[in-house]
Amino acid sequence: MMFVKTLAIGAALVAHAAAVDIRIDVGLTPLTFTPNTTTAKVGDYLEYHFHTATQHSVVAGDFASPCTPAKTGGFYSGFFSTTGTGENPNVFRVLVNTTDPIFFYCSYLRHCENGMVGVVNPGSQTLAAYKSSAASASGSVSPPGVFGGVVTTANSSSSTPSSSTSSAPATSSTAPPSAGGGGNGAGSLAVSFVSLLGAVGAAILMI
Ligand SMILES: [Cu+2]
């Protein structure tokens, strides 16, 4: 009964922990989103990290009309650049509220037409198809102002994913020794149980 209760609590914890921050690097290599294809659940956050002194942005678009903003919903980060080293201290965070495909592009100059596009939860509409029709788009449109997400410091959110990815293995590598210690405890318990059985056996034999 207690075991079942523990399982239920464990499952609840897992369900809570399920929403994740999905890091997408912008301009890490020229005219790219990395990754440019990803999957996300409702409740996850897309977190765009901007690189390079060249300006970039991210705009949610419609599959049918590449390099122009989504007609409903969507988001726009505004333009970001860096001093040339590292990433911009600010990130753009977008709460995912659908499992439908979300196409997005960079609206700076001809970056979209030149293939700086990405997608979350692609379906039958592929990124390759979006990219190829973007190549012949007549221009790239930036919405009038930032919307659909939050510009925030990367401090908490960017260093957490990177340090948690690097510290997570450390945590799990420290976990086995302590589990091993527990194992040893269980082992000595087992040994004493076996010796107890032996003693009982001996006692039986002696009768
Ligand atoms: Cu760009």
From TrEMBL:
Entry keywords, A to Z: Signal
InterPro entries: Cupredoxin, Ser-rich/MCO-related
Top-level taxon in the UniProt lineage: Eukaryota
Biased composition (Low complexity): 152-178
Annotated signal peptide: 1-19
Location of region: Disordered: 152-181
Record's protein name: Extracellular serine-rich protein
Organism of this sequence: Podospora didyma
